[in-house]
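Two quick folds needed for the group meeting slides. Do the first one here.
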Amino acid sequence: MARNLATCNRTDTVLATPADAWTDIVVGKRVAYAVLFAVCAGVGLLVSRVAWSGTMNRETVVVASTTGRTEFSTEVALSIAEHEQGLMFRTSIGDREAMLFVYPKPLTIQMWMHNTYVPLDMVFMRADGTVLRIEANAEPLSDHVISSGGAASGVLELKGGTAGLIGLKPGDHIEAPSMRAAAP
């Protein structure tokens, strides 16, 4: 059976108008985009499972605030690749889980919530563990840039609302072995 290259339809099919051929092409593109989206979403889920499966170093981080000391089981992002992945594509984070981003020298750190599905508290801290600034309940999936507001050496990401629940505020202290190891 021959094919009509202009419409990508069989030649024995009668088209009422040239618009019918255009509709077939548009529908075909939509299907192709839907398949492409499904494949990309599947890759994203696979990447998130690999990241969450423990490929990063883990340590216990202790947050000391006016209400007491709170321990968090923390993934530590040290490399550029780990910084880029962060908590993206995660659909949940436990009440006592966190991610710590460690930087080799103090700088103004800029973060965002791109492809991050859960609200987070971003706790920016100095090399000695002193809390510099807290961005509470950062909006999921936002590309808004969140800045440390000064020279920082690390960011501790907690489940959204956790900083307020434990009474954490600027000037409080965070004890993280990876921060001590990276300190100049």
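Then this one, please, same format:
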Amino acid sequence: MQIFAYDPFRHAEAVFQLWSRTLGSTYPVDRETFLAHTLACLLGRPTGAFVALARAEIIGFALTACGGESGFLEALLVAPEQQRQGVGKSLLAHAEEQLRQEGCRKLWVGRGADRFWTALPQDLPNAAAFFAATGFVAQNEVCDLVVDLREDGPPVYQDRLRDAGAEIVPCTRGMLPEVLDFEQAEFPGWVTGILRFAPPRARRPTCWWCARRPRSSAPSTPSRPGPGSLAPIWSGAPPSPVPSAATAR
């Protein structure tokens, strides 16, 4: 077995097939979504992913992202028949060394702006055992909620929106400056990731939504949603149900 830097031109299709073999039944992801997340993590850092090869076949893949002193392990895949043979540990070691060279002092599972998961999914017990055995320690539980906005939603959401005098609307290009002002004031660390999904880049006009109060003559402050202000509540299309257990090293 040998470890090489991931080359999206040579390795992308084989790595996508590896995801489908290892996680496809639990976390199905379409090819376009998988490749988009992978490439986004590698913007400006082409050595941020690795593949493990044996007899010219890809049997493992590691994907990282970097944000300041924090590194993020966004994916670690090993072919089912090659698991428990050191492939995952070798890929993890290469990923850790790369992130150290980029100045990272802490490594998290998931969490990055272009993550597949918010943290380590609880329904992957073998993955949890692997990370525990390699020195990762659970920090806290997280819950990342996904709501299908094509439906009206549970009554509680409708009641809260009505009480707030708000409505859910598709984000248009004209709304984007106000949305970004809100994000910069409330969640500045998210702005870069938000921009990757911003209209008109999104192929579907309704893949980016906002909670909005109708316009009025009353002034609004940029740091708190007021009359006429926008509060993004969901963007993009998460590829899978969302996990709820965080691990960090």
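Slide caption for protein two: The chain is about 30% helix and 20% strand.
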